[in-house]
Specification:
By secondary structure, the chain is an alpha/beta fold. The protein is built from eleven helices and nine strands. A six-stranded parallel sheet has the order 1-4-3-2-5-6, with helices on both faces. Strands 7-8-9 form a three-stranded antiparallel sheet, covered by helices on one side. Strand 5, helix 8 and strand 6 form a beta-alpha-beta unit. Helix 7 packs across helix 8. The chain binds pantoate. Pantoate binds next to strand 2 and helix 7.
Length: 286
């Protein structure tokens, strides 16, 4: 594995791979790698001849400076994991390398970026679009891999790809969970042992709620039940829970409004100062 920190070096390594006829897969990450990231890398490894993983904590997507300062940084351990995963290039640039001057681009990301995370974290998705568009420009990948835990992020990236005219396939990959159901996240390491013990209740509540939907309960009641149940757990506070169209991400309030896209429930929960997100696809009503 080659560890590259400059854009010029990265472009050269990719050009060499392409000259050999290899297809290029990109897995963008912010490091603090866990089994969820490794599952994206393994998929890229199976599908592409040359795999680039970027490790870069992107400052422009943090609207909360404390979150940026406390975001886990574990570069040495990350490199070991990338080596073991048989990655070709680990791209680990500095902030100055990615942003030699401030990125003032404002993307017209439309409605997918306005709801949920977009409403709660102003500027967050514009920052994601900035860095991912730069990475796509540096690497010009054939495929790029993103985890479905950040469900809305994938919709936003698809929109950015459409706006910028990138020619690549976005590959969404299923959420990877701990044995007790907690969605894997780099932020989980910030949970106290007590918080970690109850954190799986988020996923459990969503699973129970989705199975209740089979009994024909209306969507607004299902949504309210999730909020009430999680807020009743000591140490958890729901920021939002929305049941939305799986493509447009617009809220869906009744079963009669459900389109062929299906619906997804997206949640954000605060546990102390740690913000966890998760989602669940609701079963189709027969
Ligand atoms: O999902 C993430 O880790 C980040 O938002 C991404 C896509 C690597 C961009 O910084």
């Amino acid at each position: 594995m080659e560890i590259i920190s400059t854009v010029a070096g990265l472009r050269q390594a990719v050009a060499n791979a392409k000259a050999k006829g290899l297809s290029v897969g990109l897995v963008p990450t912010m490091g603090a790698l866990h089994a969820g990231h490794i599952s994206l890398i393994e998929r890229a490894r199976r599908e592409c001849g040359f795999v680039v993983v970027s490790v870069f904590v992107n400052p422009t997507q943090f609207n909360n400076q404390n979150d940026l300062a406390t975001y886990p940084r574990t570069v040495e351990a990350d490199c070991e994991k990338l080596e073991q995963a048989n990655v070709d290039v680990a791209f680990i640039p500095t902030v100055e390398e990615v942003y030699p001057e401030p990125d003032t681009r404002v993307f017209d990301l439309g409605s997918v970026a306005e709801v949920m995370e977009g409403a709660m974290r102003p500027g967050h998705f514009n920052g994601v679009a900035q860095v991912v568009s730069k990475l796509f420009d540096f690497v010009q990948p054939d495929k790029a891999y993103f985890g479905e835990k950040d469900y809305q992020q994938i919709a936003v990236i698809r929109r950015m790809v459409e706006l910028e005219g990138f020619k690549l396939e976005i590959v969404p990959c299923p959420i990877v969970r701990e044995a007790d159901g907690l969605a894997m996240s780099s932020r989980n390491v910030r949970l106290t042992p007590e918080q970690r013990e109850i954190a799986p209740l988020i996923h459990q509540t969503l699973v129970d709620n989705a199975s209740l939907s089979l009994h024909g309960l209306d969507l607004d009641s299902l949504r309210d039940m999730v909020v009430e149940e999680i807020n009743a757990i000591d140490g958890m506070e729901v920021e939002y829970y929305e049941i939305v169209d799986a493509k447009t991400l617009l809220p869906v309030h009744s079963w009669s409004e459900v389109s062929e896209n299906g619906i997804v429930g997206c949640i954000t929960v605060w546990m102390g100062d740690v913000r966890l997100i998760d989602n669940i696809k609701y079963p189709e009503q027969k």
